Amino acid sequence: MVLSDAPVTRHTLSAVDLGLGYGDRQIVENLTVDIPTGKVTVIIGANGCGKSTLLRGLARLLTPTGGTVLLDGKAISAIPSKQVAKVMGLLPQTPIAPEGITVADLVGRGRYPHQGWFRQWSADDDRAVAEALTATSTLDLADRPIEEMSGGQRQRVWIAMALAQETDLLLLDEPTTYLDLSHQLEVPDLLTDLNRQRGTTIVIVMHDLNLACRYADHLIAMRDGRISAEGTPNQVITSTSMHEVFGLRAEIITDPVSKTPTIIPIGRHHCAEEEPDVDQISVVSGEWAGETLR
Amino acid sequence: MTALLPSRRAVRDAADTIGVERVRAVRTKQHQRTVVVVVALVSFLLIMFCLALTVGDFPISVQQVWMSLTGRGTRATDFIVHELRLPRAVIGIAVGACFGLSGAIFQSMMRNPLASPDIIGITSGASAAAVIAILMLHLSGYAISAFAFGGALITALLIYLLAWKQGVAGYRLVLVGIGIAAMLGAIIDYLMTRAQIWDAQVALLWLTGSLNGASAAEMRPLLVLMIMTVPLALWAGGALAGLQLGDDAATSVGVRVERSRLFLILIGVALASIATAAAGPIGFVAFVSGPIARRLTNGTGIALVPAALVGAAVVIAADFVGQHLLAVQLPVGILTAAVGAPYLLYLLVRSNRIGHGG
Q1: B16 and A59: CB-CB below 8 Å?
Q2: Which residue of A285, B29, B295, B319 shows the fewest CB atoms closer than 10 Å?
Q3: How far is CA A211 from CA A51, A206, A215, B246, B291, in A?
Q4: Nearest to A130 among B19, B29, B302 (CB)
Q5: What would the pLDDT profile of B108-160 be if each residue is shown by its tens digit?
């Protein structure tokens, strides 16, 4: 990967007593969180637990119903939007590609916060776009229209746009969802490069728990709009927490490749060692008393 | 050993240079294409402008036109050039540019080719107000234009308020707009059926969109208003590039979505109503200019300047055809509708097939 080295300044992102919702529906309430600077944080949780809502709140896409989001200790709502955009980028779940636009032009739109009244497109913008395209292996597609891209290519192009913004903080909402297995690791690998080479603070909302465990330095598990556990994957991912957060029976083993926790979910069928409390019925009275039925 | 291999840094720098050159090449190619399109459109406009000034019942040579424009003409050519043909050509170009720009702004902002001011009822608002002014208040001249301007603004405000629900989504605005346009159409029809025949004829001509009444007196306020609004529209193009990516992505690159959108709507409405006030609601110009310009420039996403030029070219060419090339003289609005309506059908059929709203 070709990324130029670390911007030295370190920006911090946190939320205090944050409340978020859509209309009358309150989704996140009284949530306080510090995003660890210079780390990869992954937010996990069941569908509808408020993880995407939290990300949108942190990225100022949602106006809080209570509390504040703090960027470098200052209320984010008090900082001019363009200035925030120089520090923090977000890849939304469903960005829209304008019709007929080329890859290079789309990625170039990530440079918006760096342009202004008197500062139009510059050599620095060319460099940023080239780096972003190279890092996401989309340089060869630069002059092609976005309609021709496959799902995986398109996702990489969107990430390139977020990279071109050259922010110290990068938030991504389910960036691996539409990718098949062979491409699924590309995105978190790329984000890890970015984190290690530039020190970019990364926050990802992710569905795939094993992928989350593998790539997260810091894991935030959410349930019902609250944080139910946070820490390293080893601290957060346990059989008990799986049950609490996802209502999922699971066994946790160590991933032989990454030495991180891996979740083996337990369903109702295809269990080699059936668990006694579910599958064994002890008969306590009657004709078969004292017997165990399997 | 390491001395023989290039350093990592050197490899990286080499890769960077290749990347930067590639990006620059793509940008240059796109830029060149836009320049070619702009030059071609400007040349076409110049040719049409010359034709509009020279061709007619009283043919005047280019030389005579030039003499007249530089103050050395005869009384006859001066009258025809300064009072008739020059205002008509200038107003045609100006009005077309306003419509084209307005349409491109609305379509890009709402990410929907149907969202042009002539489809979502903004020009209908101008028309209804103008018809009220003509038929009920028996006004004429400037007063009609002022009414049209006000009508467009009030209609736009109404659509915006009705479509507002924690922000304005493209699709809701288009649907509300089409509904409002239908209502205004009904009001216009009602007034027309109740009107005196002579009044109705005046109103009908206005409603078709025509440059027949173009005069030197009308030219100046139109140009002044354009000088005030067009630069603002071009300046707002940056935010437009962000808004095209969806509200979330726009916010994350630092666009203040609702504020920019409100500003763009105001500019778009101002442009459409300035044009409608000057020449009536010349149909479909706003609607077709943006897509044509985007297809010509290919790959730049938004093309405001080319859209304005296409609008101008469409109006001046349609007016020329309607005036000189057909057996009967037709107002410009009929010709633009003849071109634009099939495109609307095509768009509707296509979006129906794809299964989304365009």
Answers
A1: no
A2: A285
A3: 16, 8, 6, 28, 43
A4: B19
A5: 888 888 889 988 889 899 999 989 988 888 887 778 888 888 999 899 889 88
